[in-house]
Amino acid sequence: LPFMELATTIRGGTLVTAAGSRRADLGIDTSGRVAAIEPSLPPGREDIDASGLFLLPGGVDSHCHIEQRTSTGLTPVDDFFTASVSALAGGTTTIVPFACQHRGQRIADVVAAYRETASKAAADYAIHIIVTDPSEPHASEDLR
C-alpha cells in the first residue's frame, strides 16, 4: 500500500469476523476508517501493538431508547451524545433508537426531529420509527 498513508496501524492482533479468525494488521486511514487488512502493513503515524488481543467488529444495538419522549412527556436522562459515548465504551459502534410518533404528529416531522437530535451522537446511528397514528392526513405520503 505505498500510495496510502495510514494514520494508525494496529499490529499483531487476532482479527475475528463471521468467516473465522486470523492474525492480521489493520490499517486505519486519516478519516478513521479501516483501509487495509493484511498479514503485515507498513507503519502508520501511530502504531498500536495488539499482540495477544482480539480485533472485533463494532456491535449494533438495534433496540435502544434515547431521547424518546413518552406519551406522558417524560424523556430518558441520556441524550444522544452521552448514550452513544457509553455505547462506544462497550464496543457498540452503531445505535438504532426508537423514534415514536405521537397522535397528530406527521411521521416526516418525527423523523426530521430525531435526525436533528441525533446529530450530536458520537457513534453511527439509524432511526427506527414507531408509527402510532397511521390515519394522520400525510401518513401515506410520509411513508414513501
UniProtKB/TrEMBL annotation:
Superkingdom of source: Eukaryota
SUPFAM superfamilies: Composite domain of metallo-dependent hydrolases (SSF51338), Metallo-dependent hydrolases (SSF51556)
Alphabetized InterPro entries for the sequence: Metal-dep_hydrolase_composite, Metal_Hydrolase, Metallo-dep_Hydrolases_sf
GO MF entry, a single one: hydrolase activity, acting on carbon-nitrogen (but not peptide) bonds, in cyclic amides
Gene Ontology, cellular component aspect: cytosol
PANTHER family recorded: COLLAPSIN RESPONSE MEDIATOR PROTEIN, HYDRANTOINASE/DIHYDROPYRIMIDINASE FAMILY MEMBER
Family stated for the protein in its record: Belongs to the metallo-dependent hydrolases superfamily. Hydantoinase/dihydropyrimidinase family.
Name of the protein this chain belongs to: Amidohydrolase-related domain-containing protein
Lineage: Eukaryota, Haptista, Haptophyta, Prymnesiophyceae, Coccolithales
